[in-house]
Specification:
The complex is a heterodimer of chains A (282) and B (323). Chain A has 282 residues and is mostly helical. Chain A has 15 helices and two strands. In chain A, α4 runs antiparallel to α14, α9 runs antiparallel to α12 and α9 crosses α15. Chain B folds into two domains: 58 residues; 237 residues, MetI-like fold, CATH 1.10.3720. Classes of the chains: A mainly alpha (282), B mainly alpha (323).
Chain lengths: 282, 323
């Protein structure tokens, strides 16, 4: 009996520590956002308490006096376009690999992984040349064209797992009913992988939003910057850091993304599970 | 009468044509290329081609001012890169930071997945909080850490002072600040902690997915045989997880070793080049100083090692008897 209680205490202790580790910088950011500057830059008193009344000033400044709304808009456009391109290309590709190619398609998980051996940090210099050739330098469209290189391999791999989890018997039955291969895909298989597609969309959106190296390399014009490159370059002026505004920008982006991820957490785990089973041939 | 009978016939023939076209495309051999083709072409155009271009650039004297590939300089860029002290420090740091992060991540992700297998009240909320670090764009995450580890206003320092661990006459020294990002080794340690923090959610999802694939009967059998928690963990769970732990190592280490945002924002490679890493050094050389050839050479340097490591790791994952 006491062993059981001990295990329960240990369990929640572990959960608590993990959660604390995950949110410490965010918690500190949250306190910073609402602190008056006179309360923030002082030594001595407990930095976790509000010694002056909390204020919304920093949030107002962020949205009114900086380019942050422009960055948000640019990031949203890039994110939505990248998600659309990713889904349009990787859903059919994953289905083709899962169903139409026979043996080697099932094993293609490994090949998709190898694309990640050529990461953005290796490609950004030639990619910069290509973006210039395409006449897209200094526009958000450079990111729309280039970022799917990161999202497509990953989403294809994840979707491969979702498709593989659907019993083959179902599309075979649809084929017998005269649906045809594409019909079987559209009417029988596709409706069942919506959670997987949703998980992929969240993943692709956050990957496209989070990429720093391309955003920093391709774009220098303030009006075309996205959140990742715009916030560090424009809210930090030389040695002057607008800390409260920086933390506000961080939270405004992070919290909605975290909620979206949280909603799809179990689907992500499920997708990884079948994708991993495909990879190790279980 | 005549004309009215012709119309439906023509209509039927048209439908036949469409249907025939549809049937022609709806064979697995054709459909597979229609569905797979766009993604493959895109990857060839925007990963394969730039990769070739990266190799070409690294063998040329291209600069931002004169980006043409007209002069072949052989391995001169690689030789020039290897003469720089900063390059060797960056290489060492990249490998060190990645290895240290992966070591910590393996332990923490296995522990976290062991906890998240169970359901408990408030799990949804916990998942949202737990995944926050991964959901954040890397540059913003770095800024949050920059503020947390600020040289003067770090709340971590404040807590350490309150605990009597920092400040005059305390074990950690007479100053009341640790200057995390201003000292070589403390800077590297800070980068490791920030990387672990950022990657833990992803690593946990990968390991948790593998953990859920282990048949429950195996645990029940072991419990019936009287095996304790740690015996089950080391004899059943970890061996069964092994192939996916290898994949998790590969995946997260590729993401960590290729990331420059953390270093650029947290330390800028300072003090000196003590916390420099390869991607940021490639960026400084290739874009900031405009030497595209040298930048490409630095970025390419890791590729052969990563390729060999990845192939070995994936082969090990496939071969594993537990798979």
């Amino acid at each position: 009996m006491s062993g059981r209680i001990l295990r329960r205490v240990g369990f929640f202790l572990g959960i608590g520590l993990l959660g604390l580790f995950a949110i410490i910088p965010v918690l500190w950011a949250l306190i910073t956002v609402f602190k008056a500057s006179t309360d923030l830059y002082v030594f001595g008193p407990n930095p976790f308490l509000f010694n002056d009344p909390p204020t919304l000033d920093h949030l107002v400044i962020l949205f009114k006096n900086t380019n942050f709304p422009v960055f948000l808009k640019n990031s949203a456009i890039v994110g939505v376009c990248v998600v659309a391109i990713t889904v349009l290309l990787s859903v059919p590709a994953a289905y083709a690999l899962a169903r139409l190619t026979g043996g080697w398609g099932e094993r293609s998980g490994m090949a998709i992984f190898l694309v990640y051996l050529i990461p953005p940090s290796l490609l950004f210099i030639p990619m910069y040349r290509i973006v210039v050739w395409l006449g897209l330098a200094n526009t958000i469209w450079s990111l729309v064209v280039v970022l799917p290189t990161i999202t497509i391999p990953f989403c294809t791999w994840l979707l491969l797992g979702f498709f593989r989890a659907i019993p083959r018997v179902q599309d075979e039955a649809a084929l017998l009913d005269g649906c045809g291969y594409f019909g079987a895909f559209r009417k029988v298989v596709l409706p069942q992988v919506w959670p997987g597609i949703g998980a992929c969309m969240v993943f692709a959106f956050s990957l496209s939003l989070g990429n720093y190296i391309y955003a920093a390399t391709f774009i220098t014009a303030s009006s075309q910057r996205t959140v990742t490159a715009g916030v560090p370059t424009e809210l930090i002026r030389g040695d002057v850091f607008y800390w409260s505004e920086l933390m506000a920008a961080t939270l405004v982006v992070a919290i909605p993304l975290a909620i979206a991820y949280g909603l799809f957490f179990n689907y992500l785990v499920g997708g990884f599970r079948s994708a991993e089973e495909a990879l190790t041939g279980r | 009468m005549n004309s009215s009978t012709i119309a439906p016939v023509e209509h039927a023939r048209e439908e036949g044509l469409l249907a025939r076209l549809g049937r022609a495309l709806d064979r697995p051999q054709v459909l597979v290329w229609l569905m797979l083709g766009p993604a493959v072409l895109y990857i060839i155009a925007f990963v394969g081609f730039p990769f070739i271009l990266a190799i070409a650039l690294s063998l040329s004297d291209a600069t931002i001012g004169d980006p043409s590939l007209d002069r072949y300089v052989g391995l001169a860029n690689f030789a020039a890169v290897m003469r720089q002290d900063a390059f060797w420090i960056a290489l060492r740091n990249s490998l060190l930071i990645t290895a240290a992060s992966i070591g910590l991540l393996l332990v923490l992700a296995t522990a976290a997945s062991e906890l998240l297998v169970y359901s408990f009240r408030g799990k949804r909320l916990f998942q949202v909080l737990f995944i926050l670090p991964w959901a954040m764009p890397v540059s913003l995450a770095a800024i949050a850490w920059l503020w947390l580890l600020d040289s003067q206003f770090s709340p971590v320092d404040w807590v350490l002072v309150q605990l009597g661990l920092l400040g005059p006459g305390s074990p950690l020294g007479p100053f009341s600040h640790l200057y995390y990002l201003g000292r070589p080794w403390l800077g590297i340690a800070s980068l490791v902690v920030a990387d672990v923090w950022r990657m833990l959610p992803l690593a946990t999802i990968i390991v948790l997915a593998a953990r859920l694939s282990i048949p429950e009967e195996r645990f029940q059998q072991a419990r019936i045989d009287g095996a304790g928690f740690f015996r089950i963990l080391f004899r059943i769970t970890i061996p069964a997880l092994r192939p996916m732990l290898i994949v998790a190592i590969l995946f997260t280490s590729l993401l960590i070793i290729g990331e420059m945002g953390m270093v650029e924002i947290l330390t800028r490679g300072a003090p000196g080049h003590a916390t420099q890493v390869l991607p940021y050094w490639a960026y400084l050389k290739g874009i900031q100083s405009g030497s595209l050839g040298q930048g490409a050479a630095i970025a390419l340097f890791l590729f052969p090692f990563l390729l060999v490591a990845a192939v070995l790791a994936l082969r090990a994952a496939y071969r594993s008897p537990e798979a």
